[in-house]
Design goal:
single chain; about 160 residues; alpha/beta; Rossmann fold; two-stranded parallel sheet; about 35% helix; globular; Putative intracellular protease/amidase; DJ-1/PfpI; Class_I_gatase-like; hydrolase
């Protein structure tokens, strides 16, 4: 699996997990070989426009590649108009309203996670539900095994 970032100089650490970048988004052109784009959450999505990532997401959508975004990454999608045609969720509808490109207010659903077409969106407290929808969309295992995984991580091993 390749890690794709804005540029090869990017080094990132999320929760202490360091990712080393294999290729920049400008260099990555084989969208037919891309299973999904997963946008992790965080506060920086509120602070920056990330125009290079937005251009890449336009290409991904045109190629009909699934996208999954959680927490602040949903704001990025909304702020660029990517959620104007799909049901979606996020941390708060009010966050989306701050951006003039966001016209999807009627499609916002207060839920842990929403999957509509090739778009998965989740609020910040929905890590298990987010992973569950990704696993189902990518069909990483049998439906029964995915259900067992979800039940275990959602409700715990000991009940």
């Amino acid at each position: 699996m390749k890690t794709i970032a804005v540029d090869k100089l990017s080094k990132t650490s999320i929760g202490g997990l360091r990712a080393e970048i294999d290729v920049s988004i400008e260099e990555y052109t084989d969208l037919n070989n891309l299973a999904m784009v997963i946008l992790p959450g965080g506060f920086s999505w509120h602070q920056k426009r990330y125009s290079k990532i937005a251009a890449f997401i336009n290409q991904v959508i045109a190629a009909d590649v699934p996208i999954a975004a959680i927490c602040g990454a949903t704001i990025f999608l909304g702020s660029h108009g990517f959620l104007n045609q799909v049901r979606h969720t996020g941390d708060s509808k009010d966050f989306f309203k701050e951006y003039t490109e966001y016209e999807g207010e009627d499609l916002f659903v207060e839920a842990q996670v929403i999957r509509d077409k090739n778009m998965i969106t989740a609020n910040e407290t929905a890590a298990v539900e987010f992973a569950y929808e990704i696993y189902k969309l990518l069909e990483i295992d049998t439906p029964e095994a995915i259900e067992d995984w979800y039940e275990n991580f959602k409700h715990g091993f000991v009940r």
